[in-house]
Each structure stands twice: as structure tokens, then as C-alpha cells.
Amino acid sequence: MAFPKDFLWGAASAAHQVEGAWNEDGKTAGIWDELCPGHIAHHESGHTACDHYHRFREDIALMKQLGLKAYRFSVSWPRVIPRPHEVNPKGLQFYVDLVDALLEAGITPMCTVFHWNLPMWLYEMGGWFCPEAPAFFEEYTRVLSKALSGKVKYWFTMNEPQCFIGLGYAAGTHAPFLRTPPEKLPEAIRIVMLSHGRAVKALRETAAQPLKIGYAPTGGCFTPESESPEAIEEARRITFATTSPFSNSLWADPFILGRIPEMMQDVLSAEDLAIIHQPLDFYAYNIYQSMNLNDRDGMLNPRVWPGLPRTALKWPITPECIYWATRFLYERYGLPVIISENGMANTDFEMLDGKVHDPQRTDYIHRHLLQLERAAEEGIPVAGYLYWSIMDNFEWAEGYDPRFGLIYVDYRTQRRILKDSAYDYAEIIRTNGESLHR
Ligand code: BGC
């Protein structure tokens, strides 16, 4: 059997996308709470989202029903640290309770320290340009480690620096909606990199048990045109090219190999690198599509044909990307791979029979897992697969239309319905992947 016995079959979410309770129990605003007006589809916001803050026990009961082995959640920084150097005990307690409930349900908690909702107080001090941001991030991580590291073994320092810098600070489509001139961007990237390094170090120093630490990047992954050695080499080369904030190697080379990428030659010093380059235990990768077919910007692409299968967000469905990404990333970085996000947006709705039938998602999951299985069969250590997302949620600038969940959420009533794909995924988990071959 290709998937290891202790394979982490799971699902993921992020605080701002599911929690709601945006100003309750001492939480202050983050950039996604405050800066959104005018930027989100239908003027929506994450203020209530799935109300998971109040309903997490019910949600964990559903996770248990599905037999999830792991659940990756993130912590809201402004909920835990509402003002500089101030800890909010109620906010912190929420995560302690969440983790306890997961453990009680037999689910391995996996904690992401930062998934995009930067506190407004830090944004007002300069955000990712603030020279003190790494110290604040370290302090915040220490608070989490003290409260949770005895119970949580798996940690991710941050989610997709590619996106919160690339979309938030360069393209201006995500909060804080900035269009920083390209020549200034490396300064912010340096601050983010130092924050990661200091957080890893803080976790190791304060951990109540040996931890497994990584981060959850994404990045453009290219798939070869054929399996000829030349085509494979070409795909590998572009996958690791460093020409934009979305690059894989821009973030991974300094973190894992201790190498300064070209884009950062002028801003990163050897002392910086000593902080940034910390031992990591796995390479977590968020992957949704192969970049070969990315024509969202109107780019002409010879591999795109009319009627190409696409998700509700118009992302091409390209399952082979998961095999190639896993292989390329393992070859270059030598760490066990966790697919920390993979999933599809669909136009799910409750049907006349009261159920949510989503055969496209079931098919999507099967196709992607079969590709991951290929990687495992070839001897690449794959440690887990976390479907994005456990439930429908606030899809950032796209609002609530794109539904990624295994669990349907009726936002008017907060009623949950397990989609057909959730039942199917439960069977995949139960059989450790065997049911993919039925
Ligand atoms: C992010 C999630 C997001 C998902 C789908 C990833 O980039 O980590 O927060 O919802 O993709 O867009």
C-alpha cells in the first residue's frame, strides 16, 4: 500500500475564513476586518463567516464523524495579541479549548501561526515593512508555544508568504491592498523571512515536546509537456525560477538551503541568513493547479483548449501537478512532503432532497490523490494530505460564492450539511487510500 500507515489524512481552514466573532472577547481588528470595504465581492466580510468561534465543538463532531486524522487550523494574531505586548487570555483560551476538543476527538491538531489577518496595530506601525515585526512575531509565537506546544506537535509558521506579499503587497488584490513598487518589495520579504526564522527558533526553544515545524508555502508549479528528460528538466527549471514574489525558491532556498536568492542579494546579509535558515521537519505545500495552464490574466497559452475542465474560480483542473510538485520539491529540498492544501471551489447548493451532491469534488480529490500515490510509490516520503477546506468559508476577495468545503455551510442559518464528497473522503481515510482503486 503506497500511503504510509500513519499518513495524516486531514483538512484545513484558517481563522479569519471560518471563525467570525471578529470583535468579541477582546479581539481587535486585523487588516482583513478593517480594510475590506470596497475590495470584496458583494461587499461581504469575514465578520461572521462560519461562526466557528461559537460552533467549533459541533464542527469537530463532524470532523470526527468523517474520521479525520488531522486538522490544520490557524490562530488569529489580533485575537491573541490585541495590542502590542498584550496577551488576551480569552482569545488564547479559545485555541486551548479547540485543541483539547480535537485531541478528545482523536484528531491531530496542526497549528498555523499566521494565515494573513495581520493585526491593525502592526499594520499601522508599517506592517511587513516594520523593522520590529519579526520581534512581535516571535513574541506572539512564544505565547502560542507556551499555551499549546505540549498538545500540538505540528506547527506551520506562516501560510503562503507568496500570497500575502504577492497579492497583499504587490498586486494589491488582497489586504492591505498595496501596490508596492517592485524594487521596494525585497525589504518587506526580508522582514517576513526574519519573522519565520525567529518563530522557528522560538518554537524550538520553548517547546514542551519535540515539535515538527515547517511553513505552508505555495508557488507556481509547472508540469512537464512530456516525460522526456528534457521536458522534465525544463519544468523543474521554471518551477524554481525566482522572478517574482510567487516563486517557490525565493522563499524555500533561504529557509531550507541557506541560500540567498538573486532577488534578495542586495538586502539579505549573512547575519539575516543565520536567523532565517532554521532546520525544518517537512515541506508543506499548498497546491491547486499547474501553472502551465494559468491563463487567468488573459495570457495566451498553447496548452489551454476551449472547454478545459475548470473549477468555479476558473482554475484549471490539472491533477498531475501534485505528483510533479511533490517530486521536484523533494528532489531539491529533501524533506518529507505534506500537501497542506488542495481542493476545489464549486457551485454547491442544497438540492431538493436536502443533500449537497458534488461529484466534481469527489472526482477532483480522487484524481489528485492518485497522483500523490504515484509519488509515494516512487519512494518519495509523503506524510499527509489536508483537503482545503473542511467547510465552505470566506474566500478572501471573492467573498462567499466559491465553496471549497467538504461541509456545506448555509450562511443564513449556519446549518452544516456534509457533502457527498465528505462521505467519500471518509471512505478514503477509512481504507487508507484503498477506496481510490474501487
Ligand atoms: C489559501 C486559502 C484559500 C485557498 C483557496 C490558499 O491560497 O491558503 O486561504 O482559501 O488558497 O483560494
Inertia-based shape: globular
β-strand amount: 5-15%
Q: Which molecules are bound in this entry? A: beta-D-glucopyranose
Low-confidence stretches: none
Strand order of the largest sheet: 5-4-3-2-1-8-7-6
* Series of secondary-structure elements, N-terminal to C-terminal: EHHHEHHEHHEHHEHHHEHEHEEEH
User: Helical content, roughly?
Assistant: 25-40%
Number of domains: 1
What name is given to the CATH topology?
Answer: TIM Barrel
CATH class membership: Alpha Beta
Beta-strand segment tally? 10
Largest sheet: 8 strands, parallel
User: Helix count, per DSSP?
Assistant: 15
- Give the termini separation: 14 Å
Q: CATH H level: which superfamily?
A: Glycosidases
- Compute the CA-based radius of gyration: 20 Å
Briefly, what is this?
The chain has 438 residues and is of the alpha/beta class. The protein has helices spanning 15-18, 31-34, 52-66, 77-80, 89-104, 120-124, 133-148, 161-171, 185-206, 229-239, 248-257, 270-276, 320-333, 359-377, 420-430, and strands at 8-12, 70-74, 108-114, 154-159, 212-216, 283-286, 337-342, 382-388, 407-410, 415-418. 39% of the residues lie in helices and 12% in strands.
Structure description:
- The chain has 438 residues and is α/β, with parallel strands linked by helices.
- It has a single domain (8-437), classed as TIM Barrel.
- 39% of the residues lie in helices and 12% in strands.
- It contains 15 helices and ten strands.
- The protein has an eight-stranded parallel sheet. A two-stranded antiparallel sheet has the order 9-10.
- Helix 14 (359-377) links the parallel strand 7 and strand 8 (382-388).
- Helix 14 runs parallel beside helix 15 (420-430).
- The protein is globular, with a radius of gyration of 20 Å.
- The two termini are 14 Å apart.
- Bound molecules: beta-D-glucopyranose.
- Residues 14, 17, 159-160, 163, 218, 286, 341, 388, 395 line the site of beta-D-glucopyranose.
